[in-house]
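Protocol step 4 of 5: obtain the predicted structure for the target chain.
Materials: sequence only (see below). No template structures provided, no constraints applied. The aim of this step is simply to have a reference model before the mutagenesis design in step 5. Sequence pasted as it appears in the construct record:
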Amino acid sequence: MRRLTVFVALLCGCATFLSAASYDYWLTGNAADARPAKTRPGLLLSGGGGDVAAAWQWFVACAGGGDIVVLRASGADGYNDYIFNKIGGVDSVESIRFNDATAARDPRVLDIIARADGIFLAGGDQARYVNYWKDTPVAAALNAHLRAGKPLGGTSAGLAVLGQYYFSALEDSITSAAALSDPFDKKVTLGRDFIAAPPLVGVLTDSHFMARQRLGRLVAFLARLGAEEKSARLIGLGIDEATALCVEPDATAKVFTEKNGCAWLVVPGAAPEVLATGKPLVTRGVEVIGLGPQSAFNLATRHVERPVARRVIATAEGKLVDEPTPTQEGKK
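Step 4 output (structure tokens):
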């Protein structure tokens, strides 16, 4: 039987709230379609733990000042006021909270996404995004949005699902210590091909990076993926809190931060020496490169200029250890 959806509308100035069984909807600004003169591609990769005004201003410019749609599976309409009033320069902000998977096939939801000039995935639990959206009309609409040359962004859980590869958290989160001790732990749930953002092919994204000490688990994730996917261009990209990496149409990227954070490029070395169920990961030659506001980075070529940090690490007994860099070796 088809479920009857009941809407309740509360109008106050330019704000609208609509509630249905499978989703909730908030609108701030103009209800009509803005149809901006020009949008352009762009990826806003935000690490969570605080938004970055300069990165949002860049994103709004990519969207041509049109209609911004925020998708989420928890929380409420916090981004509406932030984007519309604090960042400004947009025609409207619409937030949709998915309460279950059926909303991913709701015609009204799909119409809102199709008309968006910029789409942003909020934080929360990426397992819900995978369960609610992957291989559904919502995923198809997000990829159509990218193909149309419009900007897409995400923070925290929203960032986690943007790469070609992702940690799905279907069995809850996992710490670096646990992932390094056993890369085949049941909580190491990895997926691929959810969002098709061309600059993020071969990339696994992670958030809250240094604050939650996630370097070790990203190394473990990459080791697993490298063995399973045989991808020569596989890299990890971790973003610190209150920090964002903004990716231009030509795949060049710039870091913006409000807490002296970095974007961290993690490049696997040789194949792991030990990668087996129930055993600590043993791998060497993993390069970790820190990117700051003064750095230049190209996601397509993986070329880095002016990094703020660079180290080479290995794993031993479930822990990370530093290896000498080529420069250090030369000084011995």
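Step 4 remarks: Residues 22-155 form a domain with the Rossmann fold fold (CATH 3.40.50.880). The CA atoms of residues 223 and 272 lie 7 Å apart.
Proceed to step 5.
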